[in-house]
Amino acid sequence: MVHCTKCGAAVADNAAFCPACGAPQPGVPPSGAPASPGNTVIGQPQMSENVAGTLCYVLGWVTGLIFYFIDRRPYVRFHAVQSIVVFGGLQVIWFIIATFSGMSFIGGVGGISFSWVLFRLLDLLGFVLWIVLMIKAYQGSRFRVPFAADISERIFGKL
């Protein structure tokens, strides 16, 4: 008789899930069919958490929103929520600056206005955050952006 890897309860040899805690058992697909490379199960995550966490940042808040709704793993949801808050927040700030400056790139010293400098700084900040967050997510780290992680916990709850 096999024992559950999570709770230690006795599990039948061909059982896909533990009867005590419901944890999936390694080596047996839930359908009871023999394991094969082409045997995929609907509803089972097919990619590792670090890859899914990295993909949360690829298209900014859009992919964060997608992964927030399709993946229930806490690590992936953390990165999805942080992506929504970081890149959604940067886009809102960019929009506010564009609205109040009237998208005026003319004027200033030598044709460079204060709003143009702000846009370029936001672009640089967004690009650096994008690279760092994708690298940290792929490494398996829960890297917290100082203000964004606190805001995301207040909005979405602690993940």
Describe this structure in words.
The chain is mainly alpha-helical and 159 residues long. The chain has two domains: 43 residues, no CATH class; 108 residues, no CATH class. 51% of the residues lie in helices and 3% in strands. It has five helices and two strands, in the order ββααααα. A two-stranded antiparallel ribbon has the order 1-2. A hairpin with a 6-residue loop joins strand 1 and strand 2. Helix 1 runs parallel beside helix 3 and helix 3 runs antiparallel to helix 4. About 6% of the residues have low confidence.
Helix and strand composition category: mainly alpha
Q: What composes the largest sheet?
A: 2 strands, antiparallel
Report the β-strand fraction as a percent range.
under 5%
> Strand order of the main beta sheet, please?
1-2
Order of helices and strands: EEHHHHH
Enumerate the spans where pLDDT stays under 50 for 5 or more consecutive residues: 32-40
Radius of gyration: 22 Å
Distance between the termini: 36 Å
Helix percent reads 40-55%
* Number of contiguous helices: 5
Name the overall outline: elongated
Domains, number: 2
- Number of distinct beta strands: 2
Mean pLDDT: 78
Q: Secondary-structure map with pairings?
A:
Elements: E1 2-3, E2 10-11, H1 49-55, H2 61-70, H3 74-101, H4 114-138, H5 146-156
Antiparallel strand pairs: 1-2
Essential attributes:
mainly alpha; 51% helix; 2 domains; 5 helices; 159 residues; 3% strand; two-stranded antiparallel ribbon
Quick structural summary:
The protein is built from five helices and two strands, in the order E-E-H-H-H-H-H. It is an all-alpha fold.
